[in-house]
Amino acid sequence: MYIDTHAHLNFPEFKADLDETIMCAQAAKVCAIVNIALDEEAIKFGQALQRRYPHYIFNAAGIHPHEASRWNSSVEASIKELALEKQIIAIGEMGLDYFYKLAPVEIQQNTFRRQLQLAQAVDLPAVIHCRDASQDTIQILHEENRGYLKGVLHCFNGDMELAQAALKLGLLISFTGNITFPKAEKIRQAAREIPLESIMLETDCPFLAPQDFRGKRNEPAFVVKVAEKIAEVKGISVEEIAEATTANARTMFGLR
Hints:
Elements: E1 2-7, H1 18-27, E2 30-37, H2 40-52, E3 57-61, H3 73-84, E4 90-97, H4 105-121, E5 126-131, H5 134-144, E6 151-153, H6 160-168, E7 172-175, H7 185-193, E8 199-201, H8 223-234, H9 238-253
Parallel strand pairs: 1-2, 2-3, 3-4, 4-5, 5-6, 6-7, 7-8
């Protein structure tokens, strides 16, 4: 069994066939999906989806670095309320993105800090986005760690310095379809070196479809391809990858 720990099921790419997509995931032995909501509309969508698929769809909510300028006390209060009412299982995705810089760096950093503080205050894991911002991400994680920090560095595409810093903080590392890309040897090398007990699987769908599906919409069923590639680079069975990463996700997110 597999868990897709990061999906965006409210995106328009799934509008025409979402139920069929979920059925395909179930057929591929995906036993749970963590749906990441990035605005109020997406949160409401995720709540309705969870009611349709109880104990299968689970939600997280946060402000992506691209939208960091949207963070304010009202947004913070809304996400905190969702956490206290146990409507979400994680805060995020949050973090830094210096590749696009769609929000000013200073605002990204402040919003990241506030969400890390919130995650620790409500005792939920943080789902962390980092693109071309390794040093600042590491620094902020260290500075904002109050001793209660837990979470995952999602869609890993960094170097081992970033991975090791995250692991020292007790964070997990999540791999997605980009690990299958021909030029992604750096990511595959990280997967070889990172202990299995610190790894989770994700799709980040509808983005980053594995190599076998390049140019197509990514979807939760394709998380199996990520597991297969990690099994290949580690030289172990895909069943071992499935068992370990599913256990890691259940522990991280408190899933039954």
